[in-house]
């Protein structure tokens, strides 16, 4: 597909001249050791960490992202590495967590369109097969896999052009992993551009179309599918 995201000479306290492009329908993997700059790249693009210099282009237009709300307006979603601390309101219900990023779709002033709210909840709860007692159940009582599905649902509801996934299957069982893998592939087939950050080499090589490798805040290599090799990736990392 066409280039959906372009990052040029991105710098901050932890990143040095990060450059890459991401196309519609592509799953772009990010490899590296702990502290290599993978998560820092995601947080800079999503407006969590400040950028000291560089440019970000979405669908060919430069965007200034200084906060998460700027990123959301630009069509970017972000599933963070630590879902419990950064991705969910654990004391909140499944319903409130799932709709928190799209409140403007069914709340106008003091009026709440309950029909629209339930349509959104039903669509994504079913799409991701979230196992729950009811939509009013507190998120903290769900399994790790179902908590991750709620985080994914929250961002899918925004209909993002670009979705950043940081360790999307960490700490969940094999059944939920498989479901999430299918979901990621389906999103890519639907034209969503996916950034996949993972410490699991098999996951990266199995899911990605290309892999970028980082080390100490620098981009040290780029491999196409035909070049994937665990030893080579570790060498570049």
Question: What would you note in describing this structure?
Answer:
With 237 residues, the chain is of the alpha/beta class. Strand 11 (210-215) and strand 12 (218-224) form a beta hairpin. The chain has helices spanning 38-45, 68-73, 83-87, 94-99, 114-127, 144-156, 174-189, 201-207, 230-236, and strands spanning 3-11, 18-23, 27-31, 53-58, 61-63, 76-79, 107-108, 111-112, 162-166, 193-197, 210-215, 218-224. A 6-stranded mixed β-sheet has the order 6-9-10-3-11-12, sandwiched between helices. The protein has a 4-stranded antiparallel β-sheet with strand order 2-1-4-5, with no helix packed on it. A two-stranded antiparallel ribbon has the order 7-8. The chain is globular. The protein starts with a strand and ends with a helix. The protein has 9 helices and 12 strands.
